[in-house]
Structures are given as C-alpha cells and as structure tokens.
Amino acid sequence: MLRPKIFLKYFSILASTFIFSGCATITNDAYIPVALSFSDGSDGSCNLRNKRMSLEANIPGTPMIRRSDDALTYTCKTTDGREAFGSIASTIEAAKLAGSVVFFDLGITDAITDKHRLYPSNFVIPMSRNK
Question: Does the pTM exceed 0.70?
C-alpha cells in the first residue's frame, strides 16, 4: 500500500499529464452559415471563393461558408443580367483565441485551421438599380 505522500505525488503527476498534454485548442465548426441577399431584393446567383473553398450559391440564400483568414470574394449576377463583385472580410473571434492562449497552445492549431475566423452572419450585396 502506498503512503499518502507518495500517492499524492503520483496522483498529481498523472493529473498534470492529462491536463497539460491534451489538445488545448478551442475549435469551431469549419463551416458557418452566411445569409446573402441583394440590396434591391432581386434573385440571382453568386460565385463565392476564398482560399479554402469555392461554390456557386443562389441569392437570396444561406450557403455554408468555409472559415478562412482571407476575404470571401463574390461575383454575382441577377436573373435580369446585372452584375456585382466584391469581397467580405473575415474577422478574428477574439474570445476563442484568448481562451486558446490561456490553455497554452497560443492559438497555433486555430491559426493553422482558420477555425477562429468569422464572416458576418448576414451580408447584403450592393446591386445597382435596374434601368
């Protein structure tokens, strides 16, 4: 039978190993929904692209967008032929990144996977009026 001091020492080492050796990242889902619509309320489609994905989405709609540290670029066309292009900037989800720093991985895993990045939950694509 182990003496209490020795047991406490081994228990502390074992507990520390489990606490500090696990994955410390605080990750999110890789994809987030972004509600897209045209400013004039018309229908159409957009080609959406960032460095991690490319897709064509119907507008209005809510496509699932892959998180990335670069802007989400769009090239859109309405059903009546008008076009729009631009980009949507991504931002850092500071609370998750701060939590990752507290848990000692310094945000390295999140920085590699871009899962700490956000796009706005809804975005209105500026569209010129139909002439």
Answer: no
Long-range contacts of 4-7 (CB under 8 A, 24+ apart): none
Cα separation values, 44 from 35, 64, 82, Å: 14, 17, 9
Dump strand ranges (E) for the chain: 31-33, 35-38, 44-50, 53-59, 64-66, 72-78, 83-88, 91-92, 117-118, 122-125
Nearest residue to 57 via CA among 42, 75, 41: 75
pLDDT averaged over the chain? Answer: 80
Tokens for 102? Answer: 């507290």
